[in-house]
Amino acid sequence: MNTFPQAPTLRVVKAKIPFMCFRVVTRGNYPELVKNNVERNIKTCYKVGLDNFKFEVVTDNALNLPKTALVREMVVPSDYKTRNNSLFKARALQYCNEPAVSILSNDDWVVHLDEETLLTENSAIGLANFAGEDHGDIGQGVISYANEEIVSWMTTLADSVRVSVDLGMMRFCFRKLGCPMMGFKGSYIIAKESVEKDIGFDFGPKGSVAEDVMFALVAWSRGYSFNFVEGEMWEKSPFTLGDYIKQRKRWFIGHMFTLLSDEIPLKCKLGMIPTDLGWFLLIGNILNFPASFACPIPLPIVLNVIAGSMGGLILFLFLFGSIKSFSLRKYGLIRKTLIVLSTVFMIPVAACLDAVASMYGFYTRNSVGFHIVLKETQTTTQKQSNVNNSV
Fold first, then answer.
1. 254 phi and psi angles, rounded to 5 deg
2. CB distance 109 to 190 below 8 Å
3. Is 135 helix (H, G, I), strand (E, B) or coil?
4. Residue 279 pLDDT level (bands cut at 50, 70, 90)
5. pTM of the entire predicted model
6. Are the C-beta atoms of residues 108 and 193 closer than 8 Å to each other?
């Protein structure tokens, strides 16, 4: 479980790498962002020697991307409905599985990306090794959030814990247990096309809020195998605290609907139930902190040790995620040290934001929605264009 591994090498002969379809789902609100990222990701694939691939951009609104042999733009018809009336991203993904729409065979692989997700050379190699060596039916890898321009330092520092979770809890579940016991992310997913067709994404309106987790748990219940993918991909943290809260709110509601779903057996929910319950009760932990100073109550040594261990683990996860996220080459030793130490002060802020998100989600759980966070500014678009032109 080395967290500082050497860069992966391509272990599969190019001729034996299966066809990979990189699928990007978008509402079409950020055409320049999608165009720039697709171009950059294609160049990354070429850099590592991949040539048997295609990018499918699935959108609600036409983007008018340049027509090439490597890019297929798919506009979901406004009148398209699934059998179970699925919504949002789930509806678009189910449209891709329609026999009249899909151009993939059962032996092909689908790689799911968000519109802001950037491949790295290591992740492209990891995907090729995963598919070529048949490591499992479904895979997922690490996503980091501090490699490109940082729009919001607060949300980026708060997201550092997600890197630790990917490298620890998620990697252990995928690599050692072969299942998504503790959850699943919505991007950096690779899955066999036969699995996609078998499970689909038509989970109904409530199952559409966190279609990624629904897909993973249903796949687990049907006996499909999971594994971890080498290399990391890059994304950006939410640009504002408001978007951060709304993003987490949607995750909480989606997890709640998933855990209440009759489609998933109880044994496949047991790992996520305590995690999401702890998220919901986070507000109690926060309120307990000032209350313990105002009204101190003596506790047995066992409880003090447990509480101290939990606090120490949270501190470690944030600090380690920050160490992994911020490049020493980019920031230098002194600046990186200051950034990592500043993560400590972000922990209570992140806890409060997550607590607000869970409370907000619980009390608005019946208003099913899918908030899209801001993903593009004029500055980021121009910088991405400059990067593409220089590559």
1. -60, -40
2. yes
3. coil
4. very high
5. 0.91
6. yes
Residue partners of 280: CB distance under 8 A and separation at least 6: 252, 358, 362
pLDDT at 237 over 60: yes
Cα distances (Å, whole numbers) of residue 90 to 43, 54, 68, 94, 208: 28, 21, 26, 6, 5
d(CA 143, CA 245): 19
Q: Is the dihedral of CA 330, 332, 336, 338 positive or negative?
A: negative
8 A C-beta contact, residue 90 and residue 209: no
Are 212 and 189 contacting, i.e. CB atoms less than 8 angstroms apart?
A: yes
Residue 326 burial (10 A CB sphere; 0-12, 13-18, 19+): buried
E strands in 80-186: 109-113, 138-144
**Above 90 in pLDDT, residue 366?**
no
Q: How far apart are CA 318 and CA 324, in angstroms?
A: 10
For position 371, what pLDDT does the model report? 58
Task: Write out the H or E segment, with its range, that includes residue 387.
Answer: helix 378-390
